[in-house]
Description:
Two copies of one chain form a homodimer. By secondary structure, the first copy, chain A, is α+β, with helices and mostly antiparallel strands. Chain A has a domain at 7-38 and 136-177 and 205-324: Alpha-Beta Plaits, CATH 3.30.70.100. Chain A has six helices and 14 strands. In chain A, β11 and β12 (266-276) form a beta hairpin. In chain A, α4 packs antiparallel against α6 and α5 (279-288) crosses α6. The relative contact order of chain A is 0.20. The A-B interface holds A 15-16, 18-20, 23, 26, 167-170, 183, 185, 278, 280, 283-284, 287-288, 290, 293-294, 296-297, 300-301, 304 and B 15-16, 18-20, 23, 26, 167-170, 183, 185, 278, 280, 283-284, 287-288, 290, 293-294, 296-297, 300-301, 304.
Amino acid sequence: MESAIPDHLRSARTxxxxxxxxxxxxxxxxxxxxxxxxxxxxxxxxxxxxxxxPSGAAASAxxxxxxxxxxxxxxxxxxxxxxxxxxxxxxxxxxxYWDSAQRFDNWFAASGAAWTADLHAxxxxxxxxxxxxxAVERYETLFSAPDRAEGIAVLAQGMSDMxxxxxxxxxxxxxxxxxxxxxxAPKGAASIERVGSRLRIKPQHNLCLIRSGQDWSDxxxxxxxxxxxxxEPVLRRGMDFLRDEGLAIxxxxxxxxxxxxxxxxxxxxxFGMSWWKSLAxxxxxxxxxxxxxxxxxxxxxxLSKLGPAARLKLYHEVTVAAADExxxxxxxxxxxxxxxxxx
Amino acid sequence: MESAIPDHLRSARTxxxxxxxxxxxxxxxxxxxxxxxxxxxxxxxxxxxxxxxPSGAAASAxxxxxxxxxxxxxxxxxxxxxxxxxxxxxxxxxxxYWDSAQRFDNWFAASGAAWTADLHAxxxxxxxxxxxxxAVERYETLFSAPDRAEGIAVLAQGMSDMxxxxxxxxxxxxxxxxxxxxxxAPKGAASIERVGSRLRIKPQHNLCLIRSGQDWSDxxxxxxxxxxxxxEPVLRRGMDFLRDEGLAIxxxxxxxxxxxxxxxxxxxxxFGMSWWKSLAxxxxxxxxxxxxxxxxxxxxxxLSKLGPAARLKLYHEVTVAAADExxxxxxxxxxxxxxxxxx
Lengths: 343, 343
């Protein structure tokens, strides 16, 4: 067992972990390990928004994005997912990951900035870019199994051994290297500015992003039934609550998304991704709101019934981004899209 | 709203609270406030153990204790409760509180030490004394309503205003004054020594005690039905788990007790009291074990259905005792009684 914080990012704590040194988690979990030379990573969410089925404009936008994502300093990994938002719009989001800010900057200048360019205004589909470029001190990952990387972990050197800091509330904070010495408190308020045809977010310091997913593609019939009937409906209710009523508790936006394959077909993976005013607001919801307590309870029952036989894979990545690590632009999107709710 | 830690016990934190300064709990809770001159309190559990219904010996022991509890430097408050333990013995425990160690010492020398005196050996009933005398820096209380003191709070000057540090995991630790600067980690291991006919515990540093109770005497018919059918069975399963399987997770002993009136009749109050290796072990069970997650989920559902109309009263007191603040003696008790499990 090892610490979730790798040696080269460990510092003298002025803020203590929630668990004692002899704490032994009740089940194994793993974190992504980057090369020590990796200083900063990039997580970029490129969204397309439309009503109903994709129009010709939507299909061609996606085809252009597909091409862009293979060009130049292309992302090391990307995937795509879809959900229907609270205003009834379909949103198809392509999520790309880099482990070098320089490579991202090169790619973005050449192929990425065009995604929300003014020339696309009035095309009948909305577009948005939501990009974080956190220093490696500012995010953490967690995986229930070491053999199924998702998200930024696909770019990592590999997975850790079993880590100590998990399976208790506050574990995410304890896994974030910067939290060794920093309270990660939010500062300032996000606001909206208009730049050409686009709405851009003037960011708030220490904004929090979570992507938290499940993959049931390996489950057999009985486990699949349990996931679908006992867990998924409870998860959905929690996701719907955050989408519809999250703002009051610091959740600017929540998207409960189904992953698509390269042909746009749904696969047996889903994830929630949400923007939060602070890690603290996310912690409070997770640990005390009835909707997440229900999710946690359903997941605990499921996992305690199945034990190590469970084939469901779970993962998440949580980032607390400095103001200068954020970029948000919205073109022709409705006014409750993503971080526009925060403005 | 105020801090759970009173001004005169506040110190420069070297260990941070889990919540930011602007945290607002979702519902009100209150803590007991002692006079600043109160430096140390005493919580004394005097147990009687027998099979079946009380014999003449048991009844006369209780009558003697009743008298003792009114004599000399008598406790400021005491109550009595009963439960059947894992070995099938009935245990009637009288719990007495003082807010002065000196007064307790006077009383104990004159009237208390006799409870487990060797002369009672072989009487056919077991007796035990479990006494903590914590400095006020070493315990905390929490109440769902400010008008129903229980336990040590009956001796307090009054209740606080609504406090900030509650309704999140880790709140108990954040309310304990000593936790501002101390990790409250356990040191050493408890062991058993024989003193005459008695078994005495050589204590372990930073042993943890929780008494956590509920009072449904004010509930109307529908709320009472909800408590009895939706909450109590889940609570009982958690209490049974701790009683029967707690040792593996650091719970030496758990008693799920029903409060008795002065005539030995059950009233509509119950509480769990348990001895733990550490506050950390209690925290881990509370926040992640399926049995307590289920209790928490049931309580959340109950309270969110009823809102401020709920008449159920909840309270607890949690103490982390130094080695020299503990006294345990067992006479003619079975070998899994209380802290004998730890030896």
